[in-house]
Protein backbone atom coordinates (compact mmCIF):
# COMPACT_ATOMS: atom_id res chain seq x y z
CA UNK A 1 0.00 0.00 0.00
CA UNK A 2 2.91 2.35 0.63
CA UNK A 3 3.80 2.56 -3.05
CA UNK A 4 0.18 3.39 -3.96
CA UNK A 5 0.02 6.25 -1.46
CA UNK A 6 3.40 7.53 -2.70
CA UNK A 7 2.46 7.40 -6.39
CA UNK A 8 -0.87 9.14 -5.77
CA UNK A 9 0.87 11.86 -3.76
CA UNK A 10 3.25 12.60 -6.64
CA UNK A 11 0.53 12.44 -9.29
CA UNK A 12 -2.00 14.66 -7.50
CA UNK A 13 0.66 17.19 -6.50
CA UNK A 14 1.84 17.50 -10.11
CA UNK A 15 -1.73 17.74 -11.37
CA UNK A 16 -2.61 20.66 -9.12
CA UNK A 17 0.71 22.46 -9.48
CA UNK A 18 0.39 22.44 -13.26
CA UNK A 19 -3.13 23.87 -13.03
CA UNK A 20 -1.80 26.99 -11.34
CA UNK A 21 -2.15 28.80 -7.99
CA UNK A 22 -5.94 28.63 -7.99
CA UNK A 23 -5.68 24.85 -7.73
CA UNK A 24 -3.41 24.88 -4.68
CA UNK A 25 -4.67 28.00 -2.94
CA UNK A 26 -5.07 26.12 0.35
CA UNK A 27 -1.35 25.38 0.37
CA UNK A 28 -0.61 29.07 -0.18
CA UNK A 29 -2.88 29.92 2.75
CA UNK A 30 -0.74 27.62 4.90
CA UNK A 31 2.74 28.80 3.87
CA UNK A 32 2.51 32.49 2.97
CA UNK A 33 1.53 33.68 6.48
CA UNK A 34 5.06 32.73 7.55
CA UNK A 35 6.36 35.84 5.78
CA UNK A 36 3.66 37.98 7.41
CA UNK A 37 4.69 36.48 10.74
CA UNK A 38 8.31 37.52 10.22
CA UNK A 39 7.08 41.05 9.41
CA UNK A 40 4.88 41.06 12.52
CA UNK A 41 1.76 41.66 10.44
CA UNK A 42 -1.72 40.59 11.44
CA UNK A 43 -2.03 37.11 9.95
CA UNK A 44 -5.81 37.24 9.92
CA UNK A 45 -6.40 39.97 7.36
CA UNK A 46 -6.83 39.42 3.63
CA UNK A 47 -3.65 39.28 1.53
CA UNK A 48 -4.84 38.84 -2.07
CA UNK A 49 -1.28 39.19 -3.37
CA UNK A 50 -0.50 35.92 -1.58
CA UNK A 51 -3.75 33.91 -1.59
CA UNK A 52 -7.53 34.08 -1.68
CA UNK A 53 -9.63 33.82 1.50
CA UNK A 54 -8.20 34.36 5.00
CA UNK A 55 -5.81 32.45 7.23
CA UNK A 56 -7.62 30.76 10.15
CA UNK A 57 -4.87 28.75 11.82
CA UNK A 58 -2.62 29.41 14.79
CA UNK A 59 0.50 31.61 14.81
CA UNK A 60 2.43 28.48 15.77
CA UNK A 61 1.25 26.70 12.62
CA UNK A 62 2.42 29.68 10.52
CA UNK A 63 5.86 29.40 12.15
CA UNK A 64 6.15 25.68 11.58
CA UNK A 65 5.27 26.07 7.89
CA UNK A 66 8.38 28.24 7.47
CA UNK A 67 10.65 25.45 6.13
CA UNK A 68 8.15 24.80 3.33
CA UNK A 69 7.47 28.49 2.69
CA UNK A 70 11.09 29.20 1.68
CA UNK A 71 11.18 26.32 -0.83
CA UNK A 72 10.10 26.52 -4.47
CA UNK A 73 6.34 26.10 -4.62
CA UNK A 74 6.42 22.81 -6.51
CA UNK A 75 8.75 21.24 -3.96
CA UNK A 76 6.99 22.70 -0.94
CA UNK A 77 3.59 21.53 -2.21
CA UNK A 78 4.92 18.02 -2.75
CA UNK A 79 6.55 17.84 0.69
CA UNK A 80 3.38 19.17 2.32
CA UNK A 81 1.22 16.51 0.68
CA UNK A 82 3.85 13.86 1.44
CA UNK A 83 3.94 14.90 5.12
CA UNK A 84 0.16 14.66 5.38
CA UNK A 85 0.03 11.22 3.82
CA UNK A 86 3.10 9.86 5.61
CA UNK A 87 1.87 10.82 9.10
CA UNK A 88 -1.52 9.25 8.40
CA UNK A 89 -0.14 6.20 6.57
CA UNK A 90 2.34 5.17 9.25
CA UNK A 91 -0.23 5.72 11.99
CA UNK A 92 -2.61 3.42 10.11
CA UNK A 93 0.11 0.78 9.90
CA UNK A 94 0.30 0.77 13.70
CA UNK A 95 -3.43 0.52 14.40
CA UNK A 96 -3.82 -3.21 13.82
CA UNK A 97 -1.60 -6.18 14.70
CA UNK A 98 -2.03 -7.88 11.31
CA UNK A 99 -0.70 -6.55 8.00
CA UNK A 100 -3.94 -7.64 6.31
CA UNK A 101 -6.14 -5.35 8.40
CA UNK A 102 -3.61 -2.52 8.11
CA UNK A 103 -3.82 -2.73 4.32
CA UNK A 104 -7.59 -3.09 4.34
CA UNK A 105 -7.97 0.01 6.50
CA UNK A 106 -5.75 1.99 4.12
CA UNK A 107 -7.86 0.84 1.16
CA UNK A 108 -11.16 1.70 2.84
CA UNK A 109 -10.11 5.28 3.66
CA UNK A 110 -8.32 5.88 0.36
CA UNK A 111 -11.10 7.86 -1.33
CA UNK A 112 -11.29 10.29 1.59
CA UNK A 113 -7.49 10.56 1.69
CA UNK A 114 -7.57 11.54 -1.98
CA UNK A 115 -10.33 14.08 -1.32
CA UNK A 116 -8.15 15.74 1.31
CA UNK A 117 -5.05 15.48 -0.90
CA UNK A 118 -6.79 17.12 -3.87
CA UNK A 119 -7.52 20.09 -1.62
CA UNK A 120 -3.97 20.26 -0.17
CA UNK A 121 -5.64 20.33 3.25
CA UNK A 122 -4.17 19.49 6.66
CA UNK A 123 -6.86 16.95 7.51
CA UNK A 124 -4.78 13.81 6.90
CA UNK A 125 -2.06 15.30 9.08
CA UNK A 126 -4.60 16.09 11.79
CA UNK A 127 -6.17 12.62 11.61
CA UNK A 128 -2.72 11.05 11.74
CA UNK A 129 -1.68 13.07 14.81
CA UNK A 130 -4.87 12.09 16.62
CA UNK A 131 -4.23 8.43 15.81
CA UNK A 132 -0.61 8.76 16.91
CA UNK A 133 -1.80 10.19 20.25
CA UNK A 134 -3.79 6.99 20.80
CA UNK A 135 -0.89 4.80 19.66
CA UNK A 136 1.59 6.48 22.00
CA UNK A 137 -0.84 6.22 24.91
CA UNK A 138 -1.22 2.52 24.20
CA UNK A 139 2.55 2.16 24.29
CA UNK A 140 2.89 4.25 27.49
CA UNK A 141 4.85 7.00 25.71
CA UNK A 142 3.50 10.03 27.55
CA UNK A 143 5.83 12.64 26.08
CA UNK A 144 5.11 11.62 22.50
CA UNK A 145 1.37 11.41 23.14
CA UNK A 146 1.42 14.94 24.59
CA UNK A 147 3.39 16.27 21.61
CA UNK A 148 1.00 14.74 19.06
CA UNK A 149 -2.02 16.11 20.91
CA UNK A 150 -0.45 19.58 21.05
CA UNK A 151 0.47 19.63 17.37
CA UNK A 152 -3.09 18.58 16.50
CA UNK A 153 -4.51 21.39 18.63
CA UNK A 154 -2.35 24.02 16.94
CA UNK A 155 -3.45 22.86 13.50
CA UNK A 156 -7.16 22.90 14.37
CA UNK A 157 -8.39 23.69 17.86
CA UNK A 158 -10.77 20.74 18.04
CA UNK A 159 -7.81 18.37 17.72
CA UNK A 160 -7.38 18.78 21.47
CA UNK A 161 -10.48 16.60 21.95
CA UNK A 162 -8.28 13.53 21.56
CA UNK A 163 -7.00 14.41 25.04
CA UNK A 164 -10.10 12.74 26.51
CA UNK A 165 -8.30 9.45 25.88
CA UNK A 166 -5.79 10.41 28.58
CA UNK A 167 -8.42 9.49 31.17
CA UNK A 168 -8.26 5.82 30.26
CA UNK A 169 -4.55 5.19 30.74
CA UNK A 170 -2.32 4.85 33.81
CA UNK A 171 -0.38 7.97 34.77
CA UNK A 172 -3.13 10.44 33.92
CA UNK A 173 -1.46 13.38 35.66
CA UNK A 174 1.93 12.63 34.14
CA UNK A 175 0.40 12.36 30.68
CA UNK A 176 -1.56 15.57 31.20
CA UNK A 177 1.51 17.45 32.43
CA UNK A 178 3.43 16.41 29.34
CA UNK A 179 0.59 17.63 27.13
CA UNK A 180 0.35 20.92 29.06
CA UNK A 181 4.10 21.44 28.77
CA UNK A 182 4.03 20.87 25.02
CA UNK A 183 1.01 23.13 24.60
CA UNK A 184 2.75 25.94 26.48
CA UNK A 185 6.00 25.49 24.56
CA UNK A 186 4.29 25.45 21.17
CA UNK A 187 2.08 28.41 22.07
CA UNK A 188 5.17 30.47 22.91
CA UNK A 189 7.17 29.32 19.87
CA UNK A 190 6.26 32.39 17.73
CA UNK A 191 8.24 34.50 20.20
CA UNK A 192 11.32 33.14 18.44
CA UNK A 193 10.58 35.53 15.56
CA UNK A 194 8.16 38.21 16.87
CA UNK A 195 8.07 40.71 19.73
CA UNK A 196 5.78 40.38 22.75
CA UNK A 197 3.27 43.05 21.55
CA UNK A 198 3.08 41.35 18.14
CA UNK A 199 2.67 37.99 19.86
CA UNK A 200 -0.36 39.25 21.79
CA UNK A 201 -1.81 40.85 18.66
CA UNK A 202 -1.48 37.56 16.76
CA UNK A 203 -3.31 35.50 19.36
CA UNK A 204 -6.05 38.11 19.63
CA UNK A 205 -6.45 37.91 15.86
CA UNK A 206 -6.58 34.12 15.93
CA UNK A 207 -9.25 34.16 18.62
CA UNK A 208 -11.31 36.68 16.64
CA UNK A 209 -11.13 34.78 13.35
CA UNK A 210 -12.07 31.49 15.03
CA UNK A 211 -15.13 33.12 16.60
CA UNK A 212 -16.09 34.76 13.31
CA UNK A 213 -15.74 31.56 11.28
CA UNK A 214 -17.95 29.73 13.80
CA UNK A 215 -21.00 31.52 12.41
CA UNK A 216 -21.13 29.47 9.19
CA UNK A 217 -22.93 26.17 8.73
CA UNK A 218 -21.62 23.39 6.51
CA UNK A 219 -21.48 19.57 6.64
CA UNK A 220 -22.45 18.85 10.22
CA UNK A 221 -25.31 17.71 12.41
CA UNK A 222 -26.29 21.35 12.85
CA UNK A 223 -26.32 21.74 9.07
CA UNK A 224 -28.59 18.71 8.75
CA UNK A 225 -31.02 20.04 11.35
CA UNK A 226 -31.05 23.47 9.72
CA UNK A 227 -31.57 22.26 6.13
CA UNK A 228 -34.07 19.50 6.96
CA UNK A 229 -36.12 21.09 9.73
CA UNK A 230 -35.28 24.79 9.72
CA UNK A 231 -33.53 24.51 13.08
CA UNK A 232 -32.71 28.01 14.35
CA UNK A 233 -28.98 28.57 14.09
CA UNK A 234 -28.91 30.64 17.26
CA UNK A 235 -29.47 27.36 19.15
CA UNK A 236 -26.47 25.59 17.59
CA UNK A 237 -24.66 25.83 20.93
CA UNK A 238 -27.40 23.70 22.49
CA UNK A 239 -26.81 20.92 19.93
CA UNK A 240 -23.07 21.01 20.56
CA UNK A 241 -23.58 20.98 24.33
CA UNK A 242 -25.89 17.95 24.11
CA UNK A 243 -23.38 16.20 21.85
CA UNK A 244 -20.54 16.92 24.26
CA UNK A 245 -22.64 15.62 27.14
CA UNK A 246 -23.34 12.38 25.28
CA UNK A 247 -19.64 12.07 24.40
CA UNK A 248 -18.49 12.52 27.99
CA UNK A 249 -21.22 10.53 29.75
CA UNK A 250 -19.72 7.05 29.04
CA UNK A 251 -16.54 8.19 30.77
CA UNK A 252 -18.42 7.66 34.05
CA UNK A 253 -18.20 3.91 33.43
CA UNK A 254 -14.78 3.69 35.07
CA UNK A 255 -14.63 -0.09 35.28
CA UNK A 256 -14.17 -0.20 31.49
CA UNK A 257 -11.28 2.29 31.30
CA UNK A 258 -8.63 -0.39 31.20
CA UNK A 259 -10.32 -2.52 28.52
CA UNK A 260 -8.94 -2.39 24.99
CA UNK A 261 -12.39 -2.71 23.39
CA UNK A 262 -13.70 0.30 25.30
CA UNK A 263 -10.70 2.45 24.34
CA UNK A 264 -11.08 1.53 20.68
CA UNK A 265 -14.76 2.43 20.75
CA UNK A 266 -14.03 5.76 22.37
CA UNK A 267 -11.32 6.59 19.82
CA UNK A 268 -13.76 5.90 16.98
CA UNK A 269 -16.40 8.05 18.67
CA UNK A 270 -13.99 10.96 19.18
CA UNK A 271 -12.82 10.98 15.57
CA UNK A 272 -16.40 11.13 14.31
CA UNK A 273 -17.56 13.58 16.97
CA UNK A 274 -15.03 16.31 16.10
CA UNK A 275 -16.36 16.35 12.53
CA UNK A 276 -20.13 16.03 12.83
CA UNK A 277 -20.35 18.58 15.66
CA UNK A 278 -17.99 20.98 13.90
CA UNK A 279 -20.46 23.25 12.14
CA UNK A 280 -17.77 24.38 9.66
CA UNK A 281 -16.75 20.85 8.58
CA UNK A 282 -16.04 20.59 4.85
CA UNK A 283 -15.84 17.58 2.58
CA UNK A 284 -12.04 17.08 3.00
CA UNK A 285 -12.50 17.12 6.78
CA UNK A 286 -14.34 13.81 6.63
CA UNK A 287 -11.14 11.79 6.38
CA UNK A 288 -11.03 12.17 10.18
CA UNK A 289 -14.55 10.81 10.69
CA UNK A 290 -14.20 8.08 8.07
CA UNK A 291 -10.94 6.93 9.67
CA UNK A 292 -12.80 6.61 12.96
CA UNK A 293 -15.66 4.72 11.37
CA UNK A 294 -13.43 2.29 9.43
CA UNK A 295 -11.41 1.66 12.58
CA UNK A 296 -14.66 0.72 14.32
CA UNK A 297 -15.90 -1.31 11.35
CA UNK A 298 -12.78 -3.46 11.09
CA UNK A 299 -12.89 -4.23 14.80
CA UNK A 300 -16.63 -4.72 15.34
CA UNK A 301 -18.95 -3.69 12.49
CA UNK A 302 -17.97 -6.36 9.98
CA UNK A 303 -19.23 -9.03 12.35
CA UNK A 304 -22.90 -8.17 11.85
CA UNK A 305 -25.38 -7.43 9.08
CA UNK A 306 -26.25 -3.96 10.53
CA UNK A 307 -22.54 -3.17 10.55
CA UNK A 308 -22.24 -3.98 6.86
CA UNK A 309 -25.37 -1.97 6.10
CA UNK A 310 -23.87 1.02 7.85
CA UNK A 311 -20.58 0.47 6.00
CA UNK A 312 -22.27 0.70 2.60
CA UNK A 313 -24.23 3.75 3.71
CA UNK A 314 -20.98 5.50 4.72
CA UNK A 315 -19.16 4.38 1.59
CA UNK A 316 -21.85 5.50 -0.85
CA UNK A 317 -23.09 8.69 0.81
CA UNK A 318 -19.97 9.95 2.59
CA UNK A 319 -16.93 8.72 0.66
CA UNK A 320 -18.24 8.55 -2.91
CA UNK A 321 -20.23 11.79 -2.65
CA UNK A 322 -17.03 13.82 -3.13
CA UNK A 323 -16.05 12.01 -6.34
CA UNK A 324 -17.04 12.48 -9.97
CA UNK A 325 -19.14 9.32 -9.73
CA UNK A 326 -21.86 11.49 -8.24
CA UNK A 327 -23.45 13.69 -10.96
CA UNK A 328 -22.87 17.38 -10.29
CA UNK A 329 -26.55 18.24 -10.57
CA UNK A 330 -27.46 15.58 -8.01
CA UNK A 331 -24.77 16.82 -5.65
CA UNK A 332 -25.97 20.41 -5.83
CA UNK A 333 -29.68 19.68 -5.62
CA UNK A 334 -29.62 17.10 -2.83
CA UNK A 335 -26.26 16.20 -1.30
CA UNK A 336 -25.04 19.76 -0.74
CA UNK A 337 -28.40 21.25 0.21
CA UNK A 338 -29.45 18.48 2.59
CA UNK A 339 -25.91 17.82 3.91
CA UNK A 340 -26.30 14.15 3.01
CA UNK A 341 -22.57 13.49 3.28
CA UNK A 342 -22.80 13.95 7.05
CA UNK A 343 -25.90 11.79 7.63
CA UNK A 344 -24.18 8.35 7.68
CA UNK A 345 -21.55 9.63 10.08
CA UNK A 346 -24.20 10.97 12.46
CA UNK A 347 -25.90 7.56 12.47
CA UNK A 348 -22.55 5.79 12.92
CA UNK A 349 -21.71 8.02 15.88
CA UNK A 350 -25.08 7.28 17.49
CA UNK A 351 -24.46 3.53 17.10
CA UNK A 352 -20.98 3.76 18.63
CA UNK A 353 -22.23 5.97 21.46
CA UNK A 354 -24.96 3.43 22.12
CA UNK A 355 -22.32 0.73 22.43
CA UNK A 356 -20.38 2.92 24.85
CA UNK A 357 -23.41 3.88 26.91
CA UNK A 358 -24.48 0.25 27.24
CA UNK A 359 -20.99 -1.15 27.20
CA UNK A 360 -21.52 -3.50 30.14
CA UNK A 361 -24.34 -5.22 28.19
CA UNK A 362 -22.50 -5.37 24.89
CA UNK A 363 -21.47 -8.98 23.99
CA UNK A 364 -18.14 -7.97 22.41
CA UNK A 365 -17.06 -5.93 25.42
CA UNK A 366 -15.28 -8.85 27.02
CA UNK A 367 -13.11 -9.78 24.03
CA UNK A 368 -9.35 -10.08 24.71
CA UNK A 369 -7.05 -7.17 23.95
CA UNK A 370 -5.58 -9.18 21.07
CA UNK A 371 -2.36 -7.16 20.83
CA UNK A 372 -4.18 -3.96 19.98
CA UNK A 373 -1.26 -2.36 18.20
CA UNK A 374 1.33 -3.75 15.86
CA UNK A 375 4.09 -2.93 18.33
CA UNK A 376 2.35 -4.00 21.54
UniProtKB/TrEMBL annotation:
Highest taxon listed in the record's lineage: Bacteria
Record's keyword annotation contains Cell membrane: yes
Protein family according to the UniProt entry: Belongs to the glycosyltransferase 87 family.
GO cellular component: plasma membrane
Subcellular location: Cell membrane
UniProt membrane topology term: Multi-pass membrane protein
Membrane-spanning residues: 61-83, 103-132, 144-169, 181-202, 237-253, 265-298, 310-330, 342-362
Any Pfam family: GT87
Phylogenetic classification of the source organism: Bacteria, Pseudomonadati, Bacteroidota, Cytophagia, Cytophagales
Source organism of the structure: Hymenobacter montanus
GO terms for MF: hexosyltransferase activity
Protein name per the record: DUF2029 domain-containing protein
Keyword list, A-Z: Cell membrane, Membrane, Transferase, Transmembrane, Transmembrane helix
